[in-house]
Amino acid sequence: MIYVGAAIAVVAIVIVAAFSMGILSTGSKESVSLTGAGATFPMPLILKWADEYYNVTDGAVKVNYGGGGSGAGITQIKEKQVDFAGTDAPLSSTESSTYGLVHIPETLGAVVVAYNLPGITSLRLDGDTIAKIFMKDISVWNDPAIAALNPGATLPDESIATVVRSDSSGTTFVFTGYLAIVSPVFDELYGQGKTVAWPNGTLAQSGNSGVAQAVQGTSYSIGYIELAYALENDISFAQVENHDGQFITASLDTTAAAAAAAVPALPAGDGDWSEVHVLNAPGSDSYPIVTFTYILIYKELYNEETEMNKTAAETLLDFIWWAVHDDGQSLAGPLQYAPLPDAVVELNEETLRSITYQGEPLMD
Amino acid sequence: MMGWSKGKQGRKRGRASLEDKLFKYAVMGVAALVLALLWALVSKLVLDALPSMEAFGIGFLTSTVWDPNRELYTALPFIFGTLVTSAVAIAIGVPISIGIAIYLSELAPASVREPLSFLIELLAAVPSVIYGLWAIYTLRPLLTGSVEPFLIDTLGWTPFFEGAAFGIDKLAAGIILAIMIIPTVASVSKESMMAVPDSQREAALSLGATKYETTRMAVLSYARSGIFGATILGLGRAVGETMAVTMTIGNANIISWSLLDPGQTMASVIANNWGEADGLMLSSLIEIGVVLFVVALTVNVFARLMIGRVMKAVPMTGGGL
Amino acid sequence: MKGYNVRRWKDRTASLLALGCVLVALVPLISILIEVITRGAPAVDWTFLTERTKSAGSTDSGIGNAILGSVLLVAWASLIGLPLGVLTGIYVSEYGDNWFGRTVRFFNDILANFPSIVIGLFAYSLIVTVVGFSMISGAFALAIIMIPIVANTTEESLRMVPNSLREASLALGVPRWRTVLKVMVSNGRAGLVTGALLAIARVAGETAPLILTAFGNNFWETGLTEPVAALPLVIFRNAMSPYADLQEQAWGAALVLIMMVLSLNVVVRLLTRKRLKNYKAVKKTWKARLSLSG
After folding, report:
1. Element spanning B117, H or E
2. How many domains are contained in chain B?
3. What is the ipTM of this complex?
4. Hey, are the CB atoms on A205 and B251 less than 8 Å from each other?
């Protein structure tokens, strides 16, 4: 009996080895695998793109995006452990010049202030109040500052549980960037960053997912997450006062309005993006906490460490091209990510055309 | 050990002796390989931790500041978190485990002992990530709904139970750890008790002691070091546990005395931050890994010494977490 | 008389308390099983077991690729870990009655208690920095975890074989190396099998080392140098998700995983009981089983 078992084990191992060496295969012929990591902010969209592109190419291209947060993405692309990275926080100017990475904005999204208040379906907050809540200067829901913004609402006398990101996050970068603009005190004490030393008692979870889940599951909590996570899971979020004094609900339209109004002067793909932002954009319809989110790839795709072959390099560019043009961008709207303005698409085209493989541009 | 007889029986013919030697050295080579592997493991980690050791020196164990923005790293908040969660685990898990051990060793009818022992041991078979999953969806509502509000009402005036009832905190992590160490502590305690010679029990019983008194006087005192060793062994498990803790502790890189506040252990800080860590931060995380390894090692060797007194040759096939 | 009643009362109460402890400990076990089954079963169907993991909102997402990934990871890890563990166990048992053997056993115990996250760090700094996130790095980390488990059960099952068997074999002129193999195959094999199964059950549930090495994958990927999906990773990532369908996938994957692991443990138990009826054998296997996966 033992010998039968051993025989089965041997056969199993041989089959497994055959799989691994590609002799047997679950997929089709020649497939290219690309690996990416980073921001969870655009993750619902990137995963959708990956699925669609897999179908569109008949299983020839597998884009495996692992999330992990913008900080992880940046670290891993610097270490050349992934083919591309996702980040909502642009590289600092030193990083841009040192590493030879280019920024490719692939979509725009909104950071919402999600909350869990049983019975309260609508909440208005302004930047200063939000900052105070997260600094724990305001610690209960029925604080006068919140009540003043929401006359008529019965706010409970409960402690506010603030939920933030535990990992190094572009979403944190964007959110704190906004708070630093609207609250000089916040800027002074905490500043903008992918990680910030939040006050004692703050709950921290990993990824937009983790924060969304924590807010979902913790009564009287408040946290910052990307819009898609709130909408797709029926998590309430606040109307935030914008630059023009209007209380805006984040949505596809208000995100696009912010992008259109701010239209910053964007640098070239390989330039310094550290100052680029669309926060607190002017305009009566603009949602104030909006951001580009970027794909980072190397300008020169060949290097000795990864020895990415030419096909893979071309596939990478093809995928990104597909994603930033209509094929990919049409999938953004339903997920409440704003499509890229035309000017940005053109900029990306130029960037993609400048990518080289062993010195030669890959795209015509 | 084997006691291969030397001398006449062991005489071999010339050709066989060569094959024998080859086999022996082949097997010895593999064993040496495993030793080398362990050596490589420890040295590589220490090597990778050097930049951090050079940058922070002994302050790594005393500073309370973990700030990636200023490139300041430390191990102390995580050593604290590990200690606190392990303490909670021991405080809750050990009494229960001893109770189980007493029941299985002294009280259970023979027919029931084996199946129950098996069930308790099954607790150890459940993967840690599933414990974490269960903790998020089943334990946490229980904590926020009844346990923590109760603790706040009764003990909220102490610094250990300040704060709000969010269910993602050191208490939650400690409770999950307690459940996870029960199979270890209970089984080793049970074995220690079962190793107590019946003569001890009979002596007590013949003096008219009740089962309870017998257990207390004869069994527990005799098995004391084994039980203590079991506890330390459980501590060793708790110290290295990663997944269930990461999913329940709340990821706060600071020292806070309240059990109802989130925290971070040495294992969970590595799991949470390795992805974005490079350069000095990665080196610091690895240094924390070295500290964790040293702590786990010390605890386990100590446990082994304790248990070794009551039972011989206790191999530890269990692993870190 | 009053004194005696008090003592009897204490005795009864103590017995009840002890039993109570057992029941308290069983509550989480039963609760976990109930939760995993009730929350996971709705997710599990043929599609779930054969489709790959897709983005939230997909109707036909599944864990097929994660099951395959886990199987491959464990298979590769076993390929490395089982032989190394068995041979080490043989050495310590048959040839190890000296300082070197004692050293090996001591260090084997150290390896057995290594926190698995630290093993993951080692695999990361050694292999991932060279090959990248990959199946081989994950398998390597898992193999390191397997070795001490297998070595210990092998050693102990061999040690239980009475010397008379070995001496009889030698007296018949069988060379020593053949004797060792014979002893192992005929009497020690149950121990080998249980050791292998326990090690497999343990690493199948390991998550921490895989986070740092295998990375995870939403596609069918079997290449050694490519990131690979695994059941524990699917559980971990989806457990912390707000999406109801992803949460259900986590529970479904947990159900599949826990069924695999528990059945392996039950098989080990049956094998142990059947083959070796005495107390010592049970002691060996529970020690091996007392490893928690992390």
Report:
1. helix B110-125
2. 2
3. 0.89
4. yes
